[in-house]
């Protein structure tokens, strides 16, 4: 039987989970203007804006995904894609259990940059990190420069999760986070705990307290002094 799952988008009314809550650090990486922030905002808040402010440094948001027996809370670091911020990236992917590397299907150079991020994570990040490749802006398929088969073949070679997404239409946005939530190991390093109790498996915890109810809401923080960029 397929695993049931729900994602919270800031609304209420969800039935609390009887299982444990697992908290994971997830980082988004990729070239500037590929739509990383738009993907996160669609996932966390259900919103899309044609013109999204450029991220400065990184933005922090949280969101929960509810599976049958457990709830996964993502602590999401949305990093800036501009080259001048590249040196800051290790601060955000260090200790992360998951990463989404985003490219723009209408920009082949952004796909090459995504490959470079994969290599960097494979060398320097947590050796057990779950890496997902997201080909964003699938709604612009008529302007496609990266073929689906090319990206899928690369992802299979590297052992990555892969989906094409559209922050604009919400295509596969929840699905990619759900696929990551299912793949992350649900282990409790501290031994048995009571149902509903948070299990923090983030080795670089940001001291963010997870809510004890399933799909209980989301939080987000966006940096100031940002310049408009088409996403």
Write the layout of secondary structure elements.
Blueprint: E1 6-7, E2 20-30, H1 36-45, E3 51-53, E4 58-66, E5 70-79, H2 89-93, E6 98-104, H3 108-124, E7 130-136, H4 148-158, E8 161-164, H5 173-183, E9 198-200, E10 219-221, E11 228-230
Parallel strand pairs: 2-5, 2-6, 2-9, 6-7, 7-8
Antiparallel strand pairs: 1-4, 3-11, 4-5, 4-10
Shape: globular
Write down the secondary-structure element order: EEHEEEHEHEHEHEEE
Radius of gyration: 17 Å
CATH homologous superfamily identity: P-loop containing nucleotide triphosphate hydrolases
The domain tally reads 1
- Overall pLDDT score: 79
GO molecular function: G protein activity; GTP binding
Family: Belongs to the small GTPase superfamily. Rab family.
EC number: 3.6.5.2
Enzyme class: hydrolase
Describe the structure.
This protein is of the alpha/beta class and 231 residues long. The protein has a single domain, classed as Rossmann fold, CATH 3.40.50.300. 23% of the residues lie in helices and 27% in strands. It contains 5 helices and 11 strands; from the N terminus they run E-E-H-E-E-E-H-E-H-E-H-E-H-E-E-E. The strands form 2 sheets. Strands 1, 2, 4, 5, 6, 7, 8, 9 and 10 form a 9-stranded mixed beta sheet that branches. The longest helix has 17 residues. The N terminus and C terminus are likely disordered.
